[in-house]
Fold this sequence. Notes:
Helices cover 34% and strands 14% of the residues. By secondary structure, it is of the alpha/beta class. The chain has two domains: 1-40, no CATH class; 73-239, Ribonuclease H-like superfamily/Ribonuclease H (Nucleotidyltransferase, domain 5, 2-Layer Sandwich), CATH 3.30.420. It has a five-stranded mixed sheet with strand order 3-2-1-4-5, sandwiched between helices. A hairpin with a 2-residue loop joins β1 and β2 (86-95).
Amino acid sequence: xxxxxxxxxxxxxxxxxxxxxxxxxxxxxxxxxxxxxxxxxxxxxxxxxxxxxxxxxxxxxxxxxxxxxxxxxxxxxxxxxxxxxxxxxxxxxxxxxxxxxxxxxxxxxxxxxxxxxxxxxxxxxxxxxxxxxxxxxxxxxxxxxxxxxxxxxxxxxxxxxxxxxxxxxxxxxxxxxxxxxxxxxxxxxxxxxxxxxxxxxxxxxxxxxxxxxxxxxxxxxxxxxxxxxxxxxxxxxxxxxxxxxxxxxxxxxxx
Length: 255
């Protein structure tokens, strides 16, 4: 985890420190700063969403929805990854409650077939007696395609989509994309598509099973997803928060 944030790094190393070396958060950040170990965020964006199509689009059903358990809300998105052989496109399906990546697939195009493979991987993990499930995505042509919608309908999954082209309407999915790229992939020189498959298999396993996640009280997505742990959820409605921030007379409330 070469670009892990300071709070998560402190969470992981504190149990290994002897009492005389215990350190608080502020002192730890001072130590990182003094040794030039703070990571810097990088901003790069290539658009992978084509929402200007004639296929049917769906309403946003999860604006005020806060999941209370795994498999209530899945969020999907596609991001690009540069390799020496060209661009590859990563389709992800993430459980919004646990932040676990439950499905993923790589493709050398933006065709819907790759997103469908990611969805099928996620469906294999869906319990037979699961509660009503929402699938939320942008309005990209992949998610509006007949084959993708048919697979969701076949499994009784409610379809929800962003409405305004605002990334904050699908913030959880965007955040997971960013973690994989900012903390790992952007610092790896990918020489081949075969190497990328290997790296993603390794990285997603680390993300799910080893990396603490602030939104689930610094536990790992896998431990929360398996319900081995009951944690205080730090759910943030990004889109609603942005709307309220524009209205100074409204009190901002985050669950």
